[in-house]
Amino acid sequence: VQLQASGGGLVQPGGSLRLSCAASGTISSINVMGWYRQALGKQRELVASITSSGSANYADSVKGRFIISRDNAKNTVYLQMNSLKVEDTAVYYCKIVSFYYPNGYWGQGTLVTVSS
Q: In 3D, which of 25, 27, 66, 22 has the Cα closest to residue 45?
């Protein structure tokens, strides 16, 4: 399984970005895809996750600002990030987990920089 993330970049505070992550290979139809982030000097943390049936979960810090969605036909997960804050600056990683690969697979990471 391989994950390819894209969509990061530089944005001003209050702006928006949309991240995408496409999975390829032998993908279990029942899985959880998620986005994590790691800021400089901090531990990697879960931002949001979504099951293959569409049930989503968010970190408190992004609730009401970020929206996770997925296209099962394309094995792709998206993260719409709105009202971005300086503290959202981090490398964002996508991950897929299923019963067949409980440790999951990671994407390569995409840098999001929120700065004026």
A: 66
Q: How far apart are CA 36 and CA 31, in angstroms?
A: 16
Complete DSSP assignment for 15-58:
--EEEEEEEESS--SSEEEEEEEE-TTS--EEEEEEETT--EEE
Residue pair 61/81 in contact by the 8 Å Cβ criterion: no
Q: What is the pLDDT of residues 28-57, one digit of tens each?
A: 888 999 999 999 999 999 999 999 999 999
Percentage of the chain beyond pLDDT 70 is 100
Burial of 79 (0-12, 13-18, 19+ CB in 10 A): buried
Structure tokens at 80: 């719409």
Nearest residue to 51 (alpha-carbon basis) of 83, 19, 25, 29: 29
Measured at the CA of 116, the angle between CA 12 and CA 34, to 5 degrees, comes to 40
Phi, psi angles (nearest 5°) of residue 104: 80, 170
Token pair, residue 104, equals 């999951």
